[in-house]
Amino acid sequence: MSLLSVEQVVKNYDGVLALNGVSLEIQKGTIKGLIGPNGAGKTTLFHLISGIERPTSGKISFKGTDITYMEPHEISLLGVGRTFQTLQVWGNMTVVENVMAGMHAKLKGGFLSCGLWLPGVRRMEKEALNEAKEILEFLGLLGRWKWPASQLSFGEQKILELGRSLAMKPELLLLDEPAAGLTVTEVRQLAKRISRLRKEGISVFIVEHHMGMVMEIADEIAVLENGELIAVGRPDAVSSDPKVIKAYLKGTRVDA
Amino acid sequence: MLPLWLLSLILPDPHLDLRQEARLRKRDLFYSGALLLLPLVWSSPRLHYVMILAGINAILALGLSLFLGYTGQISLGHAAFFGTGAYTTAILTTRYGSPPFAAFWVSAAAAAALAYLVGRPILKLKGYFLALATLGFGEIFLVVVREAQDFTGGVIGIFGIPWFSLAGFSFDTYLKQYYLIWGVLMGLVLFCKNLIRSKIGRAFLAVAASEDAAATVGMEVAHIKLGAFVVGAAFAGFAGSLFACVMSTANPEAFGLNLSVLIIMMVILGGMGNLYGPITAAIFLTWLLDILGKYQEYSMPIYALILILLLITFPDGIGTRLNIRLIYLISYWGRKRRREKVDL
Q1: Which residues lie below 8 Å from residue B279, measured CB to CB, with a gap of 6+?
Q2: How far apart are CA A95 and CA A162, in angstroms?
């Protein structure tokens, strides 16, 4: 059984057909790339999967559970993490707090027990802090753990957003253009880290315009154009597909 | 175990106090000491009285700070919870003869319960719509209080509420009430500090910054907003109960829109996402209004002018990066003088 399956999903924004009958599947432990020209419906598809928006029709299921009409927080509790195309780092917190906030659902304690700082709460906070620091070490941000998140560079904030979604230990990670705006070195490091995530059993669904990176790390690539899937397959197969070349690559063949 | 826990409430926890305002510093000890000694050093009844009102306002501002300053939601009906607290205490003590200490807790519970009932439907709204809904709620509260005469005494209100007392000790002077109210405030500050250095505080800030992002890490946004609203209302309930005991009366005059706006002003002037700022602002504004009171019809224009000047000087609030602002201002004056010299 596939981890995520999207079946015949249609999204209609008051007459604008953003997605028209898209179906795809993601297997456990794989990286799937999603490419397509601007306005093809990539981010819409992510919004539908993570529950921020509802499809007009169709069905989305994760690990066999129907999540089509679930609330965003319920979907994330099932194990779907995501990052945003437009940065959504919480600039009013420090770097490490951003990551710790990602563990929110795992930490126990309500308003009263937190307000009274019961011993159990303190212990859990301490564990969360250590775990958050480990994640920051993996991402190379440990040196700045006490910085206000708003003072990180753009690239670092994107990495931090990835760290925040990793903190909730997702099984499926939706990355919306993680490499946009990053320097060449940062993109290379990001690619390495994403590949490492796969080794740890996290499946990744990634929207990216940075062709070199997607072609390198993805096991399979799906191509969207005007709300319809025009090709799905291995990176080399997709990049030589005439339909894809015509629609997206504008006639120039791209080598991975 | 118990003494260890109590110590953990008071002592700084350098590893876990990630938020600056949750860190107990020498400065805080200094301010607490100053507040402790102030009424003894300067024992004028007027000072005690104004500081009592300032303390009550500070409790209100602290509660709203969680909802407005941290969670980033607006409420124009906070005074209604203050009124709920005051009337609960008034009715319980005068009608049913319950001891004020018990009424104190029941008042907070009543305000919290009301906030829960009201908050569930209206916290789905955002921005202006939330402001309007809470404004309407505040007005409805006043109408109900005025019309339910058998219960609340209508526009005249309830008289003869007894002094606050605890285990036979009666808080019957302004001095004793001063310590009572500022003692309660300090307890509530500790509660807030713990709240904001825990997962709850992070959730507040996350909701304020980006609700979508908060939901994608498993935070139930509606639940968090409601929680901030209810805790803020419970604080207002405590404040209302103390207010009723201090004034020994409760009438609808005191719980209108004016007060709601004043509390919002305290939070904004004190700084969003800040605990001490709103308290400082509460002391400042209470004194300001008291002093301006003798200028009668000129008091409001002067009050407005001072607020505008303060917000221009400290756009982030007086509690936020006060030192940085001061350094900036001084260096600005310095630069200006230097520039003038060059021009000459």
Answers
A1: B58, B61, B62, B185, B189, B270
A2: 12
C-alpha to C-alpha distance for A252 and A246, rounded to whole angstroms: 8
User: Given CB atoms, is A116 within the 8 Å cutoff of chain B?
Assistant: yes
The residue among A101, A148, A131, A11 whose CA lies nearest residue B216 is A101
What number of residues does chain A have?
256
* Closest in B5, B217, B273 to A76, CB measured: B217
For B289-302, the pLDDT digits (tens) are: 888 888 878 888 88
- Distance between CA B197 and CA A51 in Å, rounded? 29
Which of A52, A114, A119 has its CB closest to that of B198? A114
Q: Is B273's Cβ below 8 Å from some Cβ in A? A: yes
Domain ranges of chain B: 26-295
Chain B neighbors of A104, CB-CB under 8 A: 199, 202-203, 206, 217-219
Identify the CATH class of A4-89+152-247: alpha beta
Q: Do the Cβ atoms of B200 and A91 come within 8 Å?
A: no
Relative to beta strand A220-225, strand A203-207 is unpaired
**Can you list the alpha helix ranges (DSSP code H) found in chain B?**
2-10, 26-41, 45-64, 78-95, 100-122, 127-147, 149-152, 174-197, 199-209, 211-216, 221-247, 257-270, 276-292, 299-313, 322-343
Q: Is B203 on the interface with A (CB under 8 A)?
A: yes
Determine the CATH number of domain B26-295: 1.10.3470
Residues of chain B contacting A123 with CB distance shorter than 8 Å: none
Is B273 in Cβ contact with A92 (below 8 Å)?
yes
> Is A162 near chain B, with CB under 8 Å?
no
Query: pLDDT tens string for chain A (256 positions)?
Result: 788 999 899 998 888 888 888 899 999 889 999 988 888 888 899 999 999 989 999 999 999 889 999 999 999 999 999 998 888 888 888 899 999 998 988 888 888 888 888 888 888 988 999 999 999 998 888 888 888 888 888 888 888 999 999 998 899 999 998 888 888 888 888 899 898 888 888 999 999 888 888 888 889 999 888 888 888 888 888 888 888 777 765 545 554 4
What residues of chain A lie within 8 A of the CB of B208, using their CB?
A: 92
Secondary structure of chain A as H, E, C letters: CCCEEEEEEEEEECCEEEEEEEEEEECCCCEEEEECCCCCCHHHHHHHHHCCCCCCEEEEEECCEECCCCCHHHHHHHCEEECCCCCCCCCCCEHHHHHHHCCCCCCCCCHHHHHCCCHHHHHHHHHHHHHHHHHHHHHCCHHHCCCEHHHCCHHHHHHHHHHHHHHCCCCEEEEECCCCCCCHHHHHHHHHHHHHHHHCCCEEEEECCCHHHHHHHCCEEEEEECCEEEEEECHHHHHCCHHHHHHCCCCCCCCC
pTM of the model: 0.88
CA dihedral sign of residues B29, B30, B35, B40: positive
